[in-house]
Automatic annotation (TrEMBL):
Protein name: 2-dehydro-3-deoxygluconokinase
MF terms in GO: kinase activity
Family annotation (PROSITE patterns): PFKB_KINASES_2
Key words of the record: Kinase, Transferase
Gene3D superfamilies assigned to the protein according to its UniProt record, in alphabetical order: 3.40.1190.20
The species this protein was found in: Leucobacter luti
Domain of life per record: Bacteria
Domain Carbohydrate kinase PfkB: 25-318
Family: Belongs to the carbohydrate kinase PfkB family.
């Protein structure tokens, strides 16, 4: 494979200027893609204007963590093209430290987000042979995984290619060997692989994780169809210490250690739900890393997920901690 690695703007894991110790950081890895977003609802063939940006589950989590005050590193491959340049630029602007392999032999993947009606959307992916799908174990710098406070992956990346699958497993195994906590969000994508293949492979990867996040339908791929509490228990039997079942507008159910907890969602009028699950995961992980109790982890998770629904875009509406107060504001005009 062609490519060359790019270091982050600052050296995460090394003492920052004016500090005597290294900053703890989270590592994520996966594919980020350019995103063409239809602005006006209706048939795409009648549209003449599109907005260009980017998205990706793992980079969404990295941005969300950064906004919540956690140092985050995103590892991935990008094409030497304008979409790749935009992704790298925006990640740095959001305080994320990218570790990029620039691949001159493959393009950055693209997503097309259509809006047939005001309340519906449809996403089409153009990622076959993309730079992101060529992610490989050697693309993860020596020492980066081993020095992390946590490594987070999703079930999207292993479905992209054999080398991307190997990169995810390598990251998890390196983290386990170094005593670094790991988390996985199942994030099943039916367009990438079938339910049987996904369930079998994700079961193996869940066994390497300390925390597992999944929608109840995704958890059923691994644990079989059963009540939510049993889904969480079955996921934990594979190895994780904590299982977090994301229930969307119904909130979440968590089994962690000897505790279980159900938390209702924060009611909002959703503008765009894309990225809400990533915000939820980042909210939970930010509090987990801070050693917060389970109730606080869940509260921040559901509030982050709710806030992300209030703005269109994959990551643009991800909250900062100060933004949570807006969910409780009685007056829509802040003075």
């Amino acid at each position: 494979m062609s490519g060359h690695a790019s270091n982050a703007t600052i050296a995460v894991g090394e003492p920052a200027a004016g500090r005597g110790e290294a900053l703890p950081y989270v590592v994520t890895l996966g594919e980020s893609m350019g995103l063409l977003r239809q602005q006006v609802p209706g048939r795409l063939v009648t549209q003449r204007a599109m907005e260009f940006g980017f998205g990706g589950a793992e980079s969404n989590v990295a941005i969300a963590l950064s906004r919540l005050g956690v140092e985050a590193v995103w590892c991935g491959r990008l094409g030497t093209d304008s979409p790749g340049e935009l992704i790298a630029r925006e990640l740095r602007a959001e305080g994320v430290h990218p570790r990029i392999v620039w691949d001159a032999a493959a393009p950055t993947g693209l997503m097309l987000k259509e809006r047939p009606t005001a309340g519906t959307s449809r996403v089409v992916y153009y990622r076959s042979g993309s730079a992101g799908s060529r992610l490989a174990p050697d693309d993860l710098p020596a020492g980066l995984i081993e020095g992390a406070a946590l490594v987070h992956v999703t079930g999207i990346t292993p479905a992209l290619s054999g080398s991307a699958d190997a990169a995810v497993e390598s990251a998890l195994r390196r983290a386990c060997a170094a005593g670094v906590p790991t988390s996985i969000d199942l994030n099943y994508r039916s367009a990438l692989w079938g339910a049987a293949a996904a369930g079998a492979r994700l079961s193996e990867l869940v066994a390497l994780a300390d925390l597992v996040f999944a929608g109840d339908d995704e958890a059923a791929l691994v644990a079989g169809a059963r009540p939510v509490a049993e889904l969480a228990a079955e996921l934990r039997r594979l190895g994780p210490r904590e299982a977090v079942i994301k229930l969307g507008e119904r909130g979440c159910y968590v089994s962690a250690g000897d505790e279980t907890l159900t938390r209702a969602a924060v009611p909002v009028t959703a503008v765009d739900t894309v990225g809400a699950g990533d915000a939820f995961v980042a909210g939970y992980l930010a509090e987990w890393l801070a050693g917060a109790p389970l109730a606080q982890r869940c509260d921040t998770a559901v509030r982050a997920g709710a806030f992300a629904c209030l703005t269109a875009g994959d990551w643009e509406g991800l909250p900062r901690r100060a933004d949570f107060a807006l969910l409780d504001a009685g007056d829509p005009v802040q003075r």
